[in-house]
Specification:
- It is a single chain.
- By secondary structure, this protein is α/β, with parallel strands linked by helices.
- It is about 40% helix and about 15% strand.
- Strands 1, 2, 3, 4, 5, 6, 7, 8 and 9 form a nine-stranded mixed beta sheet that branches.
- Helix 8 packs across helix 9 and helix 14 packs parallel to helix 15.
- The protein is globular.
- About 5% of the residues have low confidence.
Length: about 350
């Protein structure tokens, strides 16, 4: 444990002298040579970023217990299981309660079973309200959230669109997420808007949070491509610690591998920007030792944090039902004894 702490400290210290997503050596030299004030030439050597933030498992567990309802909200768009949020006195808003003018939003967004969906882009979002705080929660669904409603070819289109964003594209679905949140901010000016999602949904939440100045709580997030980063801009990206919290399950598909992180820092140092997530990263132990399973069922790992005796099994056929059974069995007791917090009016 002591040696690991020393290694992490050295690792973090060295990283300060390499590049980041918001500055590089060519940019720094240009600003110094030409005395330019372009894009904030000052470098904060003590600033950490998503890839290089070392947060202990104890701190990660505390983060989940404090903000559990925000992270489980990320599971609702895909599972359509509102039982995950009802113990926290949170309920979905109906279409009539939302009252959004869908014609003013990009694409062809429509209402289906209290969800905002667009079958042309793969968007699925739900909006909920806390009964005991001033919070409006928005959950964005993963790329496969609408697969049961569309043909396999259209499902592949959704996944392809997510891949395009990694290669520098700016798919319409990201603009849709941004505009939905902007519309909610306008409709509920006295409410605190909180975003969440898993995989692509987490990426949408992250993007919309930066563009609208709200907070996002993301699980196993798909990285933001360079085109989306350019649209956000460096000034907003530098505020990532105040905007976005990520929970990643170790070993999952998009979790940062050490060698990828090192290459990323070197590329950034030389002025080449790559896809990445921004914000505080809380890493929790995996449950399956399978990159695909740990990415697809992150809430199994989350449940294991709040119910340590919970045993995950890769052979269980209906994983989501088993996870829900464990969660439902324990959640009320955990809330009552204070292990997990209900939302309340407080400064986040």
């Amino acid at each position: 444990m002591f040696l690991n702490g020393i290694c992490n400290s050295c690792y973090s210290w060295i990283s300060r002298f390499l590049g980041s997503k918001t500055w590089s050596l060519p940019q720094y030299l240009f600003n110094k040579i030409f005395n330019s004030e372009l894009d904030n030439p000052d470098i904060n050597w003590n600033a950490t970023n998503y890839q290089w933030s070392f947060i202990s498992q104890e701190e990660s567990a505390a983060e989940i217990k404090k903000n559990l309802y925000k992270y489980v909200m990320a599971a609702v768009p895909k599972s359509e299981n509102t039982a995950w949020i009802t113990p926290f006195n949170i309920g979905l808003l109906s279409a009539s309660q939302l009252g959004l003018d869908l014609e003013k939003l990009p694409g062809t967004i429509e209402i289906k079973d209290n969800s905002l969906v667009d079958y042309s882009t793969g968007l699925k979002a739900i909006v909920a309200e806390s009964a005991c705080s001033n919070e409006i929660l928005v959950g964005f669904g993963a790329a496969d959230s609408l697969l049961s409603d569309v043909s396999p070819s259209k499902g592949l289109k959704y996944i392809f669109s997510a891949g395009v964003s990694l290669l520098g594209g700016t798919p319409l679905i990201y603009s849709q997420a941004e505009k939905i949140v902007a519309a909610l901010k306008e409709k509920y000016p006295d409410k605190k808007i909180i975003l969440s999602g898993t995989c692509l949904g987490a990426s949408l939440a992250e993007y919309a949070a930066f563009q609208n100045g709200v907070k996002a709580y993301c699980v196993n997030s798909l990285p933001l491509g360079v085109g989306l980063q350019a649209e956000i801009g460096n000034a907003k990206l530098r505020e990532h610690h105040n905007k976005v919290h990520h929970v990643t399950v170790s070993n999952e598909l998009f979790g940062d591998r050490p060698w990828i992180t090192i290459l990323d820092k070197i590329f950034s140092f030389l002025g080449f920007r790559t896809a990445a997530n921004f914000g505080l990263r809380f890493s929790i132990p995996c449950t399956y030792n399978s990159a695909i399973l740990d990415h697809s069922y992150p809430l199994d790992a989350v449940v294991k944090v709040i119910v340590p005796d919970h045993k995950a099994s890769a052979e269980t056929k209906n994983k989501r039902r088993r996870i829900s059974n464990v969660y439902n069995k324990h959640i009320n007791g955990l809330i009552e004894n204070g292990t997990v917090q209900r939302p309340k009016n407080r400064v986040q």
